[in-house]
Amino acid sequence: GDSVTQMEGPVTLSEEAFLTINCTYTATGYPSLFWYVQYPGEGLQLLLKATKADDKGSNKGFEATYRKETTSFHLEKGSVQVSDSAVYFCALSGQGGSEKLVFGKGTKLTVNP
Amino acid sequence: DTAVSQTPKYLVTQMGNDKSIKCEQNLGHDTMYWYKQDSKKFLKIMFSYNNKELIINETVPNRFSPKSPDKAHLNLHINSLELGDSAVYFCASSISGTNTGELFFGEGSRLTVL
Hints:
- The structure holds two protein chains of two kinds.
- In chain A, 0% of the residues lie in helices and 50% in strands.
- Chain A has strands at residues 3-6, 11-14, 19-21, 23-26, 32-38, 44-50, 56-59, 62-65, 75-77, 86-93, 101-103, 107-112.
- In chain A, the strands form three sheets. In chain A, strands 2, 5, 6, 10, 11 and 12 form a six-stranded mixed β-sheet that branches. A four-stranded antiparallel β-sheet of chain A has the order 3-9-8-7, with no helix packed on it. A two-stranded antiparallel sheet of chain A has the order 1-4.
- In chain A, a hairpin with a 5-residue loop joins strand 5 (32-38) and strand 6.
- Chain A starts with a strand and ends with a strand.
- By secondary structure, chain B is an all-beta fold.
- Chain B has strands at residues 4-7, 10-13, 19-25, 31-37, 43-50, 53-57, 64-70, 73-78, 87-94, 104-105, 109-113.
- The termini of chain B are far apart.
- The chains are: A mainly beta, B mainly beta.
């Protein structure tokens, strides 16, 4: 079945450091790919998405590019802030749409001042 | 107004008890979900309803019974609670058929079984 693998955390960075969180997937067909973020004590929110190969999703300084050849969707940010401290989830949905999102295990990011 | 609201936010109960968690969304969405997040933050879908009809039912013990009285509400009832049921339960909603993949989550209900 479909699955998502993301790098184990936790990740601890200093403010203004460069962030990469790796995500690879296994799926039949051409899934849509997503990054969700969960701030402390809150539910998940969609951060960015890409629906086809070579698409780049971006939001709030975060970017991720849908790489079909490497089945990857790595999350990057050039300069992290303390407010980016959260848990980040990579996810995919099959061709059937959003009825079933498959999530990775989450990566906790802590940014220190 | 909170888009997806769940009650209660916190629930502490004894093993063997029966409890319910309620969820309501005011976004006009037609699909609602229950996800379970364990202590390691792993998030797994339990159920999905579309217009009050069950469309996804993962391998969840039948002690868990979802009920959707209308498309804006999806409640979760759990019988004979066990220690392993301790988790955060998230309700979510979406618009079906648009393939946006955007789910709107509630803030979660933390269940602790003693």
